[in-house]
Every structure is written in structure tokens, then in C-alpha cells.
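Q: Hi! First time doing this. I have a protein sequence and I read that you can turn it into a structure. Is that right? Here it is:
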Amino acid sequence: MRSTLSRVFVPLALAAALLAGCSSTVTGSPAPVGGSPAAPGGLVEAQEQAEDIVEGGAPQESLDVCALLPAADVEALVGSGVQGVASDAINGNSCAWENQETYHSVTVEIGQPGTAPGGQLPPWETFLGEERSLGDGMREGPGGGIEFVAGDRDCFLQVVTEDLGGGDDEAKAVEFAQVIRGKL
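A: Yes, that's right. Below is the predicted 3D structure, encoded as C-alpha cells:
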């Protein structure tokens, strides 16, 4: 999804660039004594922020994403006994249910508050192709999933069954998005 790709890649690229820094040594000049030289323009502060992002991610609101969908509804798609696996990321919280035998899955990512200011999806990235609106503030996302807004959060949901992310899976993803909107 555009937002996941850019939300993860951009901070990591920034962190790498900032951490790489630059230094030069002039032959015959003494090495600095007692600490590091001051960095111009708040570079030290930016490096510390980038290190925080790389090391542990930005502070985020704790959200039990796996509890947002009724277990029986997810189980009907992926199979009985499949548990959701929650994870935290820089961009938000997610939960994935995957049947290791059939590879049927449901994946939900709930963005942090403020990732969809004014209840609007972020601008579409044209390199992903033509934007396909699904109405009601939703659009098709990469990989057969859908992108939607819940409050002021940019969210993503993907359903994969024997339909392989086709029309039936998309319809179920839209239904699940409505359920999540009702809870956030």
C-alpha cells in the first residue's frame, strides 16, 4: 500500500541519510578533543529523532486491532482455530489472521490518529497506477486490499480466500471496513 511503503521507506531513508553524516579530515589538523563538534542547523537533534524511529518506532497509541472484527466472521473466512497475530509498526497497529494450510487471510492495519486529516485519505501515489474509488471514502489499494478512513486514521484491509483477492474478497473487505469504522 502506498501509505505503508512511503511511511516506512521515507523515515528509514531519512534515518540512513542522517546517520551516514559526513566528515572530513584535513591532513595535519588535530582531532577534536573532548566530545563531538557541534552540528549545524539542529542536525544532532534530527539524528536523535531518526535513531529513535529506527530503534523502536514512533510513540503510538495502543490499540487491539485483533478485537475490532468479530472472531466468528474472520473464522468463517480463514478457518476455525486461526488466531489473529497483532503487531505494532511505525505507522500504526495491525492484526493478521492466516491459515497456514489454505493461505486464506485477513489483514488489518489501523493508522495512527492524524494519518487521515479531516477524514480524508492521503493523496494517491500515481506510480501505483490509476486510482480506483470504491465509494464511501474507500479506494482499492495495492495487492487487492482496500484503503479506508476511520475517524482521522488511514487504514488498510485485505481479505484473501479462494477468490484470491477478487470481487468477493473485496466486498468482504468493504464490509469489515464498515465494522471497524463503527468501532473507532
